[in-house]
Amino acid sequence: MIKKWFFTQLFELNGHPAVAKQLRRFAMSPASRPLIQPFVNMYDIQMQEAEQPLASYKTLHDLFVRHLKEEVRPVDPSAQAVVSPCDGVLSVVEDLTEDSQFTVKGQAYSVAELLGSHHEAQNYIGGRVLIFYLSPQNYHRVHVPIDGTVRTSYTLGRDSAPVNELGLEYGKRPLTRNYRRVTRITQGDHALEHVMVGALNVNTIVQTNQQREVKRGDEFGYFSFGSTVVLICPKDAVTLMDDIKGPVLMGQRIGTWNS
């Protein structure tokens, strides 16, 4: 209990928007440049995949949001493919309940809370939730998982608590309290909810793609630090690949869209 209390208090303090704002300001300033090489070393960032050489990055933020060489993240060419929207570790929650609830690390969440809409949550009863966890070493641009049409895109929340393993266990339900961007993409008879959830410290989500018609693999936006992407899929909309859980790369096929 003491351990849980300690971590909860720590995450609540660091998750405050005022703290996140100051850390973001530092990461975007030239003062953060001396930390770039140590950061690369600490997290074993694969700079050979980056579009630009290490010396070209002027701030930590520049490094976080780096582009990659196009050839290192090929996008599956199949028209009905569902591809990973980002680099990260994929976890799958099957069979959403009748009230569209799911559990992560012992904490209960609801789709209604995540989306900010009880009405829209009804569309996902019996569906599944795909959760992609990004770490500081990952590529932090987020892409579109299916061909489709963007119907809505909006933001919710204000906190910036961590969404790593400790944060999910000891934080106060960060997936539905943190700042996030919720985007609904439709293809055929189904809609998919694409949720970018901000995380600890540099809590920034930037939408770089304003197009209504999108293709799988198109860039959608970026995070400024380790974060989480959640895809909420209706029942029978997606057939997942066998044994797809675990580390995935952006553009990798994770399933088929059953339009």
What does it look like?
- The protein starts with a helix and ends with a strand.
- The longest helix has 13 residues, at about 1-15.
- The protein has helices at about 1-15, 15-25, 35-45, 60-65, 110-115, 120, 165-170, 175; strands at about 80-85, 90-95, 100-105, 105-110, 130-135, 140-145, 150-155, 180-185, 190-195, 205, 215, 220-225, 230-235, 240, 245-250, 255.
- Strand 8 and strand 9 form a beta hairpin.
- The strands form four sheets. An eight-stranded antiparallel sheet has the order 11-7-8-9-13-5-2-15. A three-stranded antiparallel sheet has the order 1-16-14, with no helix packed on it.
- It is globular.
- Residues about 1-15 and about 160-175 have low confidence and may be disordered.
- The protein is α+β, with helices and mostly antiparallel strands and about 260 residues long.
